[in-house]
């Protein structure tokens, strides 16, 4: 599972993105049906839930670390403080399950279907240190499968990430415009390199056609040329371009804000980026950063399906990041990403293989 985030709740932007993504992926009716079924009776073949007692105070959980087998577990949460508190199970920034407004002395039951991995527990106040919930694989558990609803969290987080990179690109282009108007050739090259880096980080979300021709392809080429500007002749050619580039960047941002990038497309773009890592450079470092974001978002899902593959991908990505890059390291990473893509592709039944 992903490491616990520093905040107790998803940010407002992430909450909005998650809600929008859920509606886009499955429609309001499907999302409602899913939510309604979470408290339903176990289906045939599911094991009954075990009970785990846990006490919360304003500053801690007792015990602060719990280990349970994968599957359904019921937590009996008792508030031993003098104020109403909540208790949450977190997977990164995603709230898996929660109980709010547990009054002093009250015990509340929370039942969760947990997959193997490590989760965080909020223990009392949100500023208090978090507890650890370790879920170990069970030999009796059926082979895991994922469905479209499992993708909502990573897809929403990636949408927020793309918006952030689009904002970084717009800010760099605004500074680039100022540098060009001031006829500062060094500043033009620096700001163009920053804009190129932001573009490289969001590039996996773009399609092959967008990168080959059209305004997005023109933007990529112009940024590369501007980053290499070293003479007054280069500057004279570029000085009239910033406004046009800003228009293209705005069109790019609008397209990405409206786009739902599923794991299949994320990893397809990551494979393309990994295959394009020829030699170390600022651009390739930004491409690797874009790949890392995708791996971090999808690794918890892949771990549930194929833990060795998830570990190998993390190791090969680390090798590429430490550089200097080699064709062998990039090829190994591209192979890992291709395997991840196969694992996270939904079949005709709407499930992973």
UniProtKB/TrEMBL annotation:
Taxonomic path: Bacteria, Pseudomonadati, Pseudomonadota, Alphaproteobacteria, Hyphomicrobiales
Keyword Transmembrane: yes
Highest taxon in the source lineage: Bacteria
Pfam family, one: Cupredoxin_1
Domain EfeO-type cupredoxin-like: from-to ranges: 31-135
Record keywords: Membrane, Transmembrane, Transmembrane helix
UniProt name for this protein: EfeO-type cupredoxin-like domain-containing protein
InterPro entries linked to this entry: Cupredoxin (IPR008972), EfeM/EfeO_iron_uptake (IPR050894), EfeO_Cupredoxin (IPR028096)
TM regions (residue ranges): 16-36
The species this protein was found in: Bosea caraganae
